[in-house]
Amino acid sequence: MPRFFCDAIAGGKAVITGEDAAHIARSLRMQPGERLTLSDGQGTDFDCVLDLVTPQEVFLTVEESYPCRTEPSVYVRLYMAMPKAEKLELIVQKAVELGASQVVPVATRRSVVKLDEKKAAKKLQRWQQIAESAAKQAGRG
Prior knowledge:
- By secondary structure, this protein is α/β, with parallel strands linked by helices.
- It is built from 3 helices and 8 strands; from the N terminus they run E-E-E-H-E-E-E-E-H-E-H.
- The chain has helices spanning about 20-25, 85-100, 115-140; strands at about 5, 10, 15, 35-40, 45-55, 55-65, 75-80, 100-105.
- The protein is elongated and about 55 Å long.
- The model has no long low-confidence stretch (mean pLDDT about 90).
């Protein structure tokens, strides 16, 4: 069953917007009545049925909620020195797929990579997107 992240879940209803809505409508070609799993990113999964599907918005009805069954029982936080080039993106992806709950890049004295605030904010956003994609791929909540 397809899995998506959504924070707009309230009162037994949910709405997916943006790229995920377009993916559901255009790539997966899902129709009303089909089922998917939503995760709130806080450890709860929701089995849902599609009510209305458009490329901009997908409206769902929540049928059941339960604690995420795919999360590891141990909380793993990975601290690592900043590697060169784009290696951190691969490390974030694989760490999340393997069960890390948090990846913390650390700037050490011998780190070659030095990020200013502007670059750090942009990189953080990119790393978050990679972590979300990896969590979807691995079926994590």
